[in-house]
Write a structure and sequence with these properties.
The complex is a heterotrimer of chains A (638), B (214) and C (244). Chain A has 638 residues and is an alpha+beta fold. In chain A, 36% of the residues lie in helices and 16% in strands. Among the domains of chain A are: 136 residues, Succinate dehydrogenase/fumarate reductase flavoprotein, catalytic domain (Flavocytochrome C3, Chain A, domain 1, Alpha-Beta Complex), CATH 3.90.700.10; 126 residues, Methane Monooxygenase Hydroxylase, Chain G, domain 1, CATH 1.20.58. In chain A, the strands form 6 sheets. A 5-stranded parallel sheet of chain A has the order 6-2-1-10-18. In chain A, strands 12-16-15-13-14 form a 5-stranded antiparallel sheet. In chain A, β4 and β5 form a beta hairpin. The relative contact order of chain A is 0.16. Chain B has 214 residues and is mainly alpha-helical. Helix content of chain B is 76%, strand content 0%. Chain B is globular and about 55 Å long. In chain B, 26% of the residues are buried. Chain C folds into 2 domains: 109 residues, Beta-grasp domain (Ubiquitin-like (UB roll), Roll), CATH 3.10.20.30; 126 residues, Alpha-helical ferredoxin (Fumarate Reductase Iron-sulfur Protein, Chain B, domain 2), CATH 1.10.1060. In chain C, 34% of the residues lie in helices and 11% in strands. Classes of the chains: A alpha+beta (638), B mainly alpha (214), C alpha+beta (244).
């Protein structure tokens, strides 16, 4: 049985992190060399974590499934990265950033963690700038910012519409420097198949070499998971098609609690689905809502081309419903509003599952050049995909699964319930509560990696300096390896008729329909049995061509889908359990008279951390959320 | 240090400098050749004599030959290295859009080399005494050669190919030397075009004019 | 629409490859090239045949995973496009499409259309970074950068490391890739302190990996999905000479 101890330091909010650092144990440079750390994942938390730990002198081993660390999906983040720099003199501060995240997350995140990430956000910007990330600048040479959804200040640093690429490549460059220095060893094209726990502590991982199919054992004094989110469970999402939950899921099955799995952010602006073959919903950055106005026709089923519909016949529903924030309401609010309009029959486009995002007014006011400067690449990408020129007619957008606020439960030290197993970035649950604000993921991922984990991991490793290198020929490694091989054999042996992709599509549809933008008891209950049925079918009718000892992309997919089929059930169990609406989690049973989310703080102001219980239903552990510094309010963007 | 001198970029640098040096030589040669158009052989032979005897020109001549050798040997080395960089080729020909003539420099250069060799047999080796002939009367040697139609056709083809070579060479040399930007590159390209058209035409026109007058 | 596909099949790095011919019916114009190949694989698996191995991940032209040589063009014949964004509406019913892997000595074929591009990582590790450790950075606004240089640095920095420049170049040269990285740092004051070492080290590593030299043909620029400019190569040359 696990116990949850969040280990949040006492004292005033703004002193917690300082106090923690003052009391954290250190490891001397000579000892750091003797300590091995495994980092799984090279995205915007993994690459910073690995390079920062390498810079400190630890012996770091880094794993990723891609051919090179530079391809991690953080590369696709578009809009920007937040920091409380207050360069715009618009009243921003660490406290405001903290408050916006807490409020944006609908009061389901820890105060201590959130304040800390707001605190380190400024260091993150300094660091990225110093390592050559070309953030947008003013003519005077200083950095510039833009505003993002859910806030009233301009605090988002950006590199046109590809900020994720720029910061990830920055982090990747530091990582390659450490690889050259020899402090970091890179293992690309490896997929983590299991976590190895020795005497209750995380001591290594089992990976499959995706080129040769070889199963490898790797040991360390501590393991860091930076494996991202599980949004691809919906099959169609804004994530890379190979993004997966397997590493985190294996950790869960080894005893790491999984927190708030049902908290999935549905991004309001992606290119709508166009056909059944589509493999991906491409995101159109939220920053577009700075200048784009969202609307649908006032008349149901109005099929006129958008430009022929006069202003008075357009329903700018976000501006109508949320006058204070207008088009810049948080993502969850914008997504549900779009769904509401489309469900009511006002949607546009061939499927009726889309709304207009119109730049006409912005172009008239600022000129085409200004818009091109800010979003040029997004307009291009939209045109590549749809063939529509958004300088002339509105974009069509629709919500899509995007970011998972849920993830491995971690304490203040970013350590999971398995000692020595850390989770950073999107793979943990910690900072975004029930909904993440735009441009906060790059901030949190890199903040975790560069400026938080290096402190907390040394506090854990300090007592480990006497532990010799962990050997990989011990029974725990053997058992884990055998289990992994066993499962691969099992997947290959089914020899049925349905491909992993088809199962994934079916699972995605169940999840999207029943555990997507809105949820209700009946739908969720039905979905559980549907998933169980699908899982049975999977293990009876899957087809995986090829062999285990070669590059086999279908085998990779099958393993990931098998894990999604289990995770899906946990997400639904969590969604069923949380009989309130908060942030991205919208239970139809819990809404206000005007259809806004209705929280239930008396019963649900807690983190739901689920413990794996073999074939039995998972065990719920509650971490009560105490709000000492902010007042719980019903979120309003009106 | 070796790696520095023989890196691909350094080799290109040397190629470019050598090439630009050769570009300076061509107008001088053309200037002298245009004297062939006079019916009086004296000015041309005088100029040839001057070129053959003036000490400073002798020094430049050695330099010129060295530069040609460097340009050729580096060019061939780079080309071989480049071929080896793709041991397995594509089955469909690469259709990527490229700058005019840029893909054929080794061939256009080779054609120019063949011409130079012939040219050496016809003139330079006479001067050196390796081949029989009168070094003091290159005027008549030239006029005799231009009387042979086959020679003139070869001469024209080679200058056409030289034009192709020069057009890419001039702009490419500046790019290699690191001199390229949105303002100057179009100017350089225009100069390259003018140079690559005017110079070969200047040479090619000589046998034509001689025929007309004969 | 119905297509004839001739796709390079090669079991592994050591084996000899060959073209396999597939007739594929039911291709929709809205598919991307990658989705078309995924659809092909789906049909192959259902028929009990081995699917075609190829890389793809983000499907929005930013991760650089995908890349294949399509009918004589890296990433296909449309300008500024990655394979994952290449729409099938640019092809027509009855077309024959020949798909080959990137060909270059430093990019050996791993399987079918997958090549090993780790040579790029090695070039990057040789000097493609700014040596600042976490915690050492001054305030972000303590260093001013002109908007012009910042924009030029950005234009170079958007390289996705797909390798199309190498695939397109008749010499299999990596100069555009190297120049993009060197330019980004050369244009920013942060990158100046180690500019000399960077240019030298990255060029040396590029040669060591076996890439060809630059003939200024411009094929790389024409095929770069991010349209990185040839001027960057001139800047790289400049940076290299200045390093001595």
């Amino acid at each position: 049985m696990i116990t949850l101890n969040s280990k949040i330091p006492g004292g005033p909010l703004e002193e917690k992190w300082t106090r923690y650092k003052a009391n954290a144990k250190l490891v001397s440079p000579a000892n750091k060399k003797k300590l091995d750390i495994i980092v799984v994942g090279t995205g915007i938390s993994g690459a910073p974590a690995a390079s920062a730990l390498g810079e400190l002198g630890y012996n770091v081993k880094v794993f990723c499934y891609q051919d090179t660390p530079r391809r991690a999906h953080s590369v696709a983040a578009q809009g920007g990265i937040n920091a409380a720099k207050n360069y715009k003199n618009d009243g921003d501060s660490v406290y405001h950033l903290f408050y916006d995240i807490i409020k944006g997350g609908d009061f389901r995140a820890r105060e201590g963690n959130v304040y800390r990430i707001a605190e380190v956000s400024n260091q993150v910007i300094d660091h990225f700038t110093a390592i050559g990330v070309p953030f947008a600048r003013e003519y005077g040479g200083t950095l510039t910012t833009r505003s993002f959804g859910g806030v009233q200040v301009s605090r988002t640093f950006y590199s046109r519409g590809q900020t994720g690429q720029q910061v990830l490549l920055g982090a990747y460059s530091s990582l390659t420097r450490q690889i050259k220095e020899g402090t970091v060893t890179m293992y690309p094209r490896r997929e983590m198949l299991d976590l190895v726990v020795v005497d209750g502590k995380a001591r290594g991982i089992i990976v499959r070499n995706l080129l040769t199919g070889e199963i490898e054992r790797h040991s360390a004094h501590a393991v860091v998971l930076a494996t991202g989110g599980y949004g691809t469970i919906y099959y169609l999402s804004t994530l890379a098609v190979n993004s997966n939950a397997s590493a985190a899921w294996k950790a869960y099955k080894r005893g790491a609690a999984f927190a708030n799995p049902s908290f999935v952010q549905i991004h309001p602006s992606s290119v709508p689905q166009m056909n059944e073959f589509q493999s991906k919903l491409t995101l159109m950055s939220e920053s577009l809502r700075n200048d784009g106005r969202v609307w649908v026709p006032k008349t149901k089923g109005d099929k006129r081309p958008a430009n022929e519909i006069p202003d008075e016949e357009r329903d700018y529903y976000l501006e109508r419903r949320y006058p204070a924030f207008g088009n810049l309401v948080p993502r969850d609010v914008a997504s549900r509003a779009a769904k509401e309009r489309c469900d009511a029959g006002y949607g546009v486009g061939p499927t009726g599952l889309a709304v207009n995002l119109d730049f006409r007014d912005a172009i008239n006011k600022q000129g085409k050049k200004a818009i091109e400067d800010k979003y040029g690449n997004l307009f291009e990408m939209y045109k590549d995909i749809t063939g529509i020129d958004s300088y002339v007619e509105p974009m069509r957008i629709y919500p899509a699964g995007h970011y998972t606020m849920g993830g491995l439960w971690v304490d203040y030290e970013l350590m999971t319930t398995i000692p020595g197993l850390f989770a950073v970035g999107e793979s943990n649950f910690s900072d975004h509560g029930a909904n993440r604000l735009g441009a906060s993921s790059l901030m949190q991922g890199s903040g975790d990696g560069y400026f938080i984990l290096p402190y907390t991991i040394s506090n854990y490793l300090a007592p480990e300096i006497k532990t010799p290198r962990i050997k990989t020929d011990i029974p725990e490694f053997r058992e884990a390896e055998e289990k992994a091989i066993e499962r691969i054999k099992k997947l290959l042996a089914i020899k049925g008729k349905t491909t992993a992709t088809d199962f994934h599509k079916k699972l995605g549809k169940i999840m999207w329909d029943h555990c997507g933008m809105t949820r209700n008891e009946a739908g969720l209950t039905e979905a559980i049995s549907m998933i169980r049925g699908l899982r049975d079918e999977f293990w009876k009718d899957l087809i995986v061509p090829g062999r285990a000892d070669e590059l086999n992309q279908e085998l990779e997919k099958a393993g990931r889908v098998a894990d999604f089929l289990e995770l899906g059930e946990l997400m639904i169990i969590d969604a069923l359990n949380r009989r309130e609406s908060c942030g991205a989690h919208f239970r139809e049973e819990s809404q206000t008279a005007d259809h806004e989310a209705l929280r239930n703080d008396d019963e649900f102001a807690y983190v739901a951390a689920w413990e794996y219980n073999n074939d039995q239903p998972p065990i719920l552990h509650k971490e009560e959320l105490k709000f000492e510094f902010v007042e719980l309010k019903q979120r309003s963007y009106k | 240090m070796n790696k520095v001198l023989f890196s691909a970029v350094s080799k290109k640098f040397v190629m470019a400098l050598a090439g630009l040096f050769l570009l300076l030589f061509l107008p001088v040669h053309l200037g002298i050749n245009l004297l062939l158009l006079k019916s009086d052989p004296e000015p041309f032979n005088k100029a040839a004599h001057f070129m053959a005897t003036f000490p400073l020109v002798k020094v430049v001549e050695i330099l010129l030959i060295l530069v040609i050798l460097v340009h050729i040997s580096y060019g061939v080395t780079l080309q071989v290295h480049n071929w080896l960089s793709r041991p397995v080729g594509y089955s469909v020909r690469n259709k990527s859009r490229t700058l005019a003539f840029s893909k054929f420099m080794i061939w256009t250069g080779g054609a120019v080399l063949i011409f130079i060799v012939i040219h050496f047999f016809n003139f330079y080796f006479i001067k050196l005494g390796i081949v029989d002939g009168d070094p003091e009367n290159f005027y008549s040697v030239a006029h005799q050669l231009f009387a042979i139609p086959g020679y003139v056709i070869l001469y024209w083809v080679c200058f056409l190919l030289l034009g192709f070579h020069l057009y890419h060479a001039l702009q490419s040399a500046f790019q290699t030397l690191g001199f390229a930007n949105t303002f100057w590159t179009p100017v350089i390209k225009a100069i390259a075009l003018i140079y690559a058209v005017v110079l070969p035409i200047g040479f090619a026109i000589i046998p034509f004019v001689i025929w007309q007058f004969k | 629409m119905k297509l004839t596909l001739k796709i390079w099949k090669q079991k592994n790095a050591g084996s000899k490859g060959r073209f396999a011919k597939y007739d594929l019916d039911g291709v929709a114009a809205e598919m991307s090239f990658i989705e078309m190949l995924t659809y092909l694989n789906q049909t192959l698996i259902e028929k009990g045949e081995e699917p075609v191995a190829f890389e793809h991940d983000c499907h929005e032209g930013i991760c650089g995973s995908c890349g294949m040589y399509i009918n004589g063009y890296p990433h296909g014949h449309i300008k500024g496009m990655t394979t994952c964004l290449l729409s099938m509406r640019y092809f027509k019913d009855g077309d024959t499409i020949v798909v080959e892997p990137w060909r270059a000595k430093p990019f050996p074929v791993i399987k079918d259309l997958i090549v090993d591009r780790s040579a790029f990582d090695k070039i990057q590790a040789a000097g493609g970074f700014i040596t600042v450790t976490a915690g050492a950075a001054p305030d972000a606004n303590s260093m001013l950068v002109s908007k012009r240089n910042s924009d030029l640095a950005f234009d170079a920095s958007i390289c996705i490391g797909c390798g199309a420049c190498v695939a397109a170049c008749k010499n299999a040269s990596a100069m555009l890739f190297v120049s993009a990285k060197v330019s980004q740092y050369a244009l920013l004051p942060q990158g100046r302190p180690e500019a000399k070492e960077r240019a030298k080290a990255m060029i040396a590593e590029m040669d060591r990996q076996g890439f060809g030299s630059c003939s200024n043909t411009g094929a790389c620029e024409a095929q770069c999905p991010k349209q990185i400019k040839l001027f960057n190569i001139a800047r790289l040359n400049r940076e290299y000479y200045k390093a001595f």
